[in-house]
Amino acid sequence: MEHYGGMLNIQNKLYYTIAEFIPTTFDVGTNYAHLQVEQDNGLMMATMAYSKYIKPQHLQANNQKVVHIIIGFNNQKAANQAIKHGLFIEGKQVTVCKLLSELKRCLKCQNFRHYVADCKVETDRCACCSGKY
């Protein structure tokens, strides 16, 4: 670490999942909430490293009772256990599924695996039928 200077920051790979219909009383992003979930579900300490709302809190309805959250686990075993058995959060059994990333899609030619900045097509194409405008 001496060779890289003092600004080096090493992070573990996180395994992201989506937990559905979590009560809004869950304190997203806090170590205390993560520790409580780990204890309630028999997970090793410090395996739940990350959590955040999918829909930002300021955009949620005032009377909203449940939300979906993204949870990042430090190890694959804990993520798989959560997916297989679900999690017990805020007194409620919730389902968990793997977070799948969306494919890259160019908004100019409508092809996958690249973005507009890298597109070599000269004319735009329709998003519905991929025909020329």
Shape-level CATH architecture of the largest domain = 2-Layer Sandwich
Element-by-element helix/strand order: EHEEHEEE
Number of helices: 2
Mean pLDDT: 88
Largest sheet: 4 strands, antiparallel
Terminal residue distance:
55 Å
How many beta strands in the DSSP annotation? 6
How would you write the strand order of the largest sheet? 2-3-1-6
Q: What is the total domain count?
A: 2
| Structural class based on helices, strands and sheet pairing | alpha+beta
Cα-based radius of gyration, to the nearest Å: 20 Å
Classified in CATH, the superfamily of the largest domain is RRM (RNA recognition motif) domain
Helix content, binned percent:
10-25%
CATH class of the largest domain: Alpha Beta
Shape category: extended
Low-confidence stretches: none
List the helices and strands and how they pair.
Layout: E1 15-23, H1 31-41, E2 48-53, E3 66-73, H2 76-85, E4 87-89, E5 92-94, E6 96-98
Antiparallel strand pairs: 1-3, 1-6, 2-3, 4-5
